């Protein structure tokens, strides 16, 4: 991972934003995918724009994208793209969806971008560097006790059978709960406004970009067993602004 | 209700926005109220600013405010104020909370403003007039079948015992569900991006402003029995962009 890779991630975010912007609260084609999630013309245009740039600029790197799949999957470096995380939010006209861009090296996310194009908010995280929001450093906030923690998750229906009860064991002991939000919750956590995000069923393209953003701001991300997140993870995700909260969360989840 | 009342509602929204803006994602004092909901310095500053204007401009009208209670409750005209609807969203830094301002005459909301100050989005509804978003007319969208309807609600924990099952009877038959959002969902419904919002436990200051906005855009609002919303309502709210959806919703709620 180099400075040029971070610049390229910014360039990808610019291209995705330009592709998506004309469709926000405007007519677009959409359909329902095999997994029952919606996809729009905007998702596809944005991913195509990013992939075209990557094919030119990093022809040897792999690409994993939500809409157009995987190429060069054995490459050591993988660009992982979710053109619109929170497609339902995008379709409904909420300005809290995001474009997610990650660089994964040897299975670990080392660069992450969360880009909210309507509010023009861009979080950039890179392994070993401080996370920025629109170029200014941000940090998570301290929160010593679960009872004081604000918890967020996209919705109860995203948990599988048995998982909702495990989530609720945390929720009951948390200070407050905020529903909806998709990737935007992790940006708010990185900026010190939310303490915990817990989700399940995420794909690599849903969470890879979040890890460098959250961890570069002083937080910690792991799966529901406390393991680091990477290409092999099963999609169960915890993000804590204060790493000291993780033990209390895992205890109640398990 | 006169044009001057609509101008005054705009003036109140400007004053509230000016009072709230400095506190967004910045430090503020907060506490938990008797009903366990949070209130911040921003809520109080915004309501105080609006009440000061009303005392000067409409000294004979009543005021019902979330934070500072009721004055002149027997007046025929009541200004109903929620300085920050979605206080939890505001505290978490989400740009989808809103200031709600209503004029209620003879128990019925006749003017409604939903103001989102970060995105600078202002919906204005007035009985018998077309609803506007930032000065441009908006309309709800047609949606003939519940199976195609996008449903939104702030969160499952806002429903009382037994109510969540009634809500889920609608949700199971709807096309999709979006969580979180508070008053912003009703603005998106008025602008044709969401089809249904169903909530319970709302106070007059939570829903009065929504009625003229939704109905002036072609939608319909009622309680869970199909009755019009007003000062005497019990806080169970349905909003439909397509009035033809109401029957299917009420059937499943009851």
Distance between the termini of chain A: 35 Å
Radius of gyration of chain A: 17 Å
| Strand-residue proportion of chain A | 25-35%
Oligomer: homodimer
Q: Largest inter-chain interface? A: A-B, 29 and 29 residues
Low-confidence runs of chain A? none
Descriptive overview:
The structure is a homodimer of 254-residue chains. Chain A is α+β, with helices and mostly antiparallel strands. In chain A, 30% of the residues lie in helices and 27% in strands. Chain A has 8 helices and 15 strands. The first copy, chain A, has helices at 3-20, 41-57, 87-91, 163-171, 184-190, 204-207, 210-216, 246-253, and strands at 30-32, 38-40, 62-65, 69-71, 77-85, 98-105, 108-116, 121-126, 132-133, 136-137, 150-153, 176-179, 196-199, 220-222, 237-240. In chain A, the strands form 3 sheets. An 8-stranded mixed sheet of chain A has the order 4-3-5-6-7-8-9-10, sandwiched between helices. Chain A has a 5-stranded mixed sheet with strand order 12-11-13-15-14, with helices on one face. In chain A, β3 and β4 form a beta hairpin. In chain A, α1 runs antiparallel to α2 (41-57), α4 (163-171) crosses α8 and α5 packs parallel to α7 (210-216). The longest helix of chain A has 18 residues, at 3-20. The model of chain A has no long low-confidence stretch (mean pLDDT 97).
């Amino acid at each position: 991972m180099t400075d040029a890779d971070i610049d390229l991630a910014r360039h990808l975010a610019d291209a995705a934003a330009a592709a998506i912007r004309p469709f926000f609260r405007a007519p677009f084609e959409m359909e329902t995918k095999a997994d029952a999630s919606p996809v729009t013309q905007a998702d596809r245009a944005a991913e195509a724009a990013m992939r075209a740039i990557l094919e030119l600029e990093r022809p040897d790197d792999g690409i994993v994208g939500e809409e157009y799949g995987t190429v060069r999957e054995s490459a050591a470096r993988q660009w992982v793209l979710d053109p619109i995380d929170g497609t339902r939010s995008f379709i409904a006209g909420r300005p809290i969806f995001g474009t997610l861009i990650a660089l994964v090296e040897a299975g670990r996310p080392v660069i992450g971008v969360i880009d909210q194009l309507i509010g023009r908010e861009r979080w950039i995280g890179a392994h070993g560097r401080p996370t920025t929001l629109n170029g200014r450093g941000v940090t998570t906030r301290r929160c010593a006790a679960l009872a004081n923690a604000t918890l967020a998750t996209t919705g109860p229906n995203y948990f599988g059978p048995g998982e909702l009860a495990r989530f609720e064991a945390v929720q009951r002991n948390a200070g407050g709960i905020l529903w909806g939000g998709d990737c935007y919750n992790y940006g708010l956590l990185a900026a010190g406004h939310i303490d915990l995000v817990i989700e399940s069923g995420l794909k690599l393209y849903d969470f890879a970009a979040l890890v460098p953003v959250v961890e570069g701001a002083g937080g910690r991300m792991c799966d529901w067993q406390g393991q680091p997140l990477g290409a092999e993870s099963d999609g169960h995700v915890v993000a804590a602004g204060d790493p000291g909260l993780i033990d209390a969360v895992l205890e109640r989840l398990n």
